[in-house]
Amino acid sequence: MGEPRLFLRLDLTSRISLGPGKIHLLEEIARHGSISAAGRTMKMSYRRAWLLVSELNSHFREPLVTTRLGGTGGGKATVTPLGRAVIRAYRRMEKEAQRIAQRCAAALIEKLHEGPRRGPKKPARRA
Amino acid sequence: MGEPRLFLRLDLTSRISLGPGKIHLLEEIARHGSISAAGRTMKMSYRRAWLLVSELNSHFREPLVTTRLGGTGGGKATVTPLGRAVIRAYRRMEKEAQRIAQRCAAALIEKLHEGPRRGPKKPARRA
């Protein structure tokens, strides 16, 4: 049945949040050194990837990603030390929260139907 | 600036997840003893509230909410002991995860702009 999975969105303020999408994008930029390549691996348009980076950068005192115009090979994007700190903080939080979720959900998992899904059951109606 | 807030979605399996919406709905049903009243407080149609309850019930061996056809006063809905256990498990998980989030996010919060939002800043382009 696999283990329960947790998705986290952290609202740092009412204006800026961190979730799995933005964090994954930062990780892919760090890996590929390119916003467009990162976007491609996530099946995201360059425009959308760029806007997410721009939004993140705008809320921090220092940028999380810097870009450099390139020559024939195209530009290069770098995840800054602050950007890497953001990734680490989110992944650490996620890992610890996942451990809590497994503990809290254990008793519930036992109460689920196992095997293939049965048809939806209407709430019992007692006359 | 307020403290960071965390939103959690727990996928118990690939087919059934628990998030703030479903949990809040269960809490409102417990409070009002009625799916329609619970839906109203959440500005949700009766149909949508009923479908969410039906979906939850269908994945557990015992229902989380039972309903009874009513007389002139309308029907009555009851959150079962299992339903209450689901609420408690989620809220406990959320509370513990929130504590972790505050700890992990503290250093990031200090790196945010304070005060009113400044205009979006383009990623620095170095030639």
Question: Which sheet architecture does the biggest sheet of chain A show?
Answer: 2 strands, antiparallel
Q: What's the overall average pLDDT of chain A, rounded? A: 87
Output the number of helix runs of chain A.
4
User: What is Rg of chain A?
Assistant: 20 Å
Q: Could you characterize what this model shows?
A:
The structure is a homodimer of 127-residue chains. Chain A is of the alpha+beta class and 127 residues long. Helix content of chain A is 50%, strand content 19%. Chain A contains 4 helices and 5 strands, in the order ββαααββαβ. A two-stranded antiparallel sheet of chain A has the order 1-2. The first copy, chain A, has a two-stranded antiparallel ribbon with strand order 3-4. In chain A, β1 and β2 form a beta hairpin. In chain A, α2 packs across α3. The two termini of chain A are 36 Å apart. The mean pLDDT of chain A is 87. Chains A and B meet through β1, α3, β3, α4 and β5 of A and β1, α3, β3, α4 and β5 of B.
